[in-house]
């Protein structure tokens, strides 16, 4: 399924100018049909899956309680 720049920006929750910059720097694969760029939606699936994994890992890390402070005394 192909998306326009605006649809891709909405899908990824970024500004259209970011998508256009990524296209111009060949960071996103796109085709130009003579009027507009069309972007294949499937190229973002693995990226979004990885982002969800990282979000979950961060939430788990933040949910762990801090360990109690160990009172270390200098024994000279």
From TrEMBL:
One of its GO terms (molecular function) is DNA binding. It comes from the Bacteria. Residues 2-50 form the Helix-turn-helix domain. InterPro entries: HTH_17, SinI_DNA-bd. Pfam families: HTH_17 (PF12728). This is DNA binding domain-containing protein, excisionase family. It comes from Sediminibacillus halophilus. The lineage of its organism: Bacteria, Bacillati, Bacillota, Bacilli, Bacillales.
């Amino acid at each position: 399924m192909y998306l326009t720049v605006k649809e891709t920006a909405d899908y990824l929750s970024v500004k259209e100018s970011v998508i256009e910059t990524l296209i111009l720097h060949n960071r996103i694969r796109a085709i130009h049909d003579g009027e507009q760029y069309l972007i294949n939606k499937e190229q973002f699936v693995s990226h979004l899956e990885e982002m969800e994994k990282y979000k979950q890992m961060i939430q788990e890390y933040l949910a762990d309680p801090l360990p109690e402070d160990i009172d270390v005394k200098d024994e000279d």
